[in-house]
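Severity: low
Component: inverse-folding endpoint
Summary: output formatting inconsistent between runs
Steps to reproduce: submit the following structure tokens with default settings.
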């Protein structure tokens, strides 16, 4: 499935850049969206299933690091491709410039290079040992686990994996997801996935131009500021990698929720009092920094950990589906909220959502650091 995602990414990048109509453009982007759905679902789940317990949080966070590196690379490439835009250029002038006619095509087509590398390198990646055990291929699973941690590690992991899969070497019945012991875990996963989007940070990424324009910046300045935000995003993801297995998932989730709530209150106040300038950029950077070292990677870590082995794939799929639905709704509703309520009240709404997320994490999410997937499963299932 990850190989399929790589193929779709490559085709989507080239086809989007070559689109000769809006309908073709949208179809090519939808193909890229399918690839994102596959990769964002499977990558953290796969990493969690092959990583030793004591460093699983760090490795799943590396998945987020590579996403951030990709975002920053795209921002830098776009900045380098784009020709300088004079201050005061109208939308029509930009449309008729090289950027509006050809530059954007090169921006999309450049994505085909990392997509093709993804396709090639996937052939070096072994299958998940937990998936192999679930499908009755114990010997292959043992060989992969031995390469990861040695023979003693492989024997111990294999026993634990099999103990949670007794009588479950079969296809998942989706009805299993709604059994009383699993239902609450699934709800937690869905809430965390949607909260990661509805905390509001993707508004800053997706509508950076509008956010910075409202703060008084021109087009060329906006492109540079977007690169700056990408650098911050990357730098603070390293903070998450270094703290997730030391501080724990829950503490970082709480810090992120509270931090974003405070920042959104200040951002809303800036817009409310029509105060523009460098401090808005600094608040944006603070929000991205807070998100990058907390909610961005940690939600993926938790989603890859909390579901029982036998239904992890199905439960992860539902959670990631909810995540992208949340992303769509956030992106779709921001212009509506911004137009009807104004930027100030819109950011205050996101701040209120962060407070709700803080309360939920505090009361419902259990710490998972340092535990094997099988230990987490036993604790969560037994409790429910």
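Observed output (run 2 of 3):
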């Amino acid at each position: 499935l990850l190989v399929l995602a790589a193929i779709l990414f490559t085709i989507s990048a080239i086809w989007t850049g070559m689109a000769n109509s809006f309908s073709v453009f949208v179809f090519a982007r939808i193909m890229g969206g399918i690839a994102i759905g596959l990769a964002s679902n499977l990558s953290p789940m796969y990493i969690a299933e092959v990583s030793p317990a004591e460093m699983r949080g760090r490795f799943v966070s590396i998945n987020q690091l590579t996403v951030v590196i990709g975002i920053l690379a795209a921002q830098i490439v776009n900045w380098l491709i784009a020709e300088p835009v004079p201050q005061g250029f109208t939308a029509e002038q930009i449309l008729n410039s090289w950027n509006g006619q050809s530059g954007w095509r090169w921006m999309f087509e450049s994505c085909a290079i990392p997509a093709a590398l993804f396709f090639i390198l996937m052939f070096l990646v072994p299958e998940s040992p937990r998936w192999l055990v679930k499908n009755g291929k114990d010997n292959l699973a043992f060989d992969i686990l031995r390469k990861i941690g040695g023979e003693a590690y492989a024997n111990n992991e294999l026993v634990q994996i099999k103990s949670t899969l007794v009588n479950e070497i079969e296809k998942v019945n989706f009805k299993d997801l709604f059994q009383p012991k699993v239902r609450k875990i699934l709800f937690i996963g869905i809430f965390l996935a949607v909260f990661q989007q509805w905390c509001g940070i993707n508004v800053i990424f997706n509508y950076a131009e509008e956010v910075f324009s409202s703060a008084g910046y021109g087009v060329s300045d906006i492109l540079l500021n977007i690169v700056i935000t990408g650098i911050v995003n990357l730098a603070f993801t390293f903070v998450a990698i270094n703290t997730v297995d030391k501080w724990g998932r829950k503490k970082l989730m709480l810090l992120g929720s509270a931090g974003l709530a405070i920042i959104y209150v200040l951002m809303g106040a800036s817009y409310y009092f029509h105060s523009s300038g460098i401090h808005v950029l600094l608040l944006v950077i603070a929000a991205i920094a807070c998100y990058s070292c907390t909610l961005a990677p940690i939600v993926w870590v938790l989603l890859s950990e909390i579901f029982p082995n036998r239904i992890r794939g199905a439960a992860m799929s539902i959670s990631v589906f909810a995540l992208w639905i949340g992303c769509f709704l956030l992106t779709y509703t921001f212009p509506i909220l911004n137009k009807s309520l104004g930027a100030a009240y819109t950011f205050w709404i996101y701040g209120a959502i962060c407070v709700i997320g803080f309360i939920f994490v505090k009361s419902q999410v259990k710490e998972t650091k340092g535990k094997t997937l099988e230990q987490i499963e036993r604790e969560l299932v037994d409790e429910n």
